[in-house]
Amino acid sequence: MGSMSWIHWVIVLGVVALLFGGRGKLSGIMGDAAKGIRAFKDGLKDDTSSESADSKATGALPRTEAEKEKS
Fold first, then answer.
1. pTM for the structure as a whole
2. Disulfide-capable partner of 21 in 4, 17, 41, 63 (CB 3.0 to 4.6 Å)?
3. Residue 54 to residue 51: CA distance in whole angstroms
4. E strands of the chain, at which residues?
5. Cα separations (Å) of 70 from 9, 59, 60, 63?
6. CA quadruple 34, 37, 39, 41: dihedral, nearest 10
7. Buried b (16+ CB within 10 A) or exposed e, 14-48
8. Cα distance between the two ends of the chain
């Protein structure tokens, strides 16, 4: 119970290799995740700003049938 089996050592070595192996693999992974989150937030901002611009352009009330036919 006090010692670790060979499977545990393989898992530990794998985690250490992932964190510290190569040139900044962890920072590269986190950078990619940050870019994805930033792109998602920018996409949400674009959607809400275009919706608010559309509502300002058409007014607060919905168009009537007569107004729709004139356009």
1. 0.37
2. 17
3. 5
4. none
5. 75, 16, 19, 11
6. -140
7. eeeeeeeeeeeeeeeeeeeeeeeeeeeeeeeeeee
8. 79
- Does the pLDDT of residue 57 top 80, yes or no? no
CA–CA gap between residue 28 and residue 18 (Å, rounded) = 11
Backbone angles phi, psi at 66, to 5 degrees: -65, -40
Domain locations in the chain? 24-53
pLDDT tens for residues 41-50? 988 887 665 5
d(CA 3, CA 24): 31
The SS3 call for residue 60 is coil
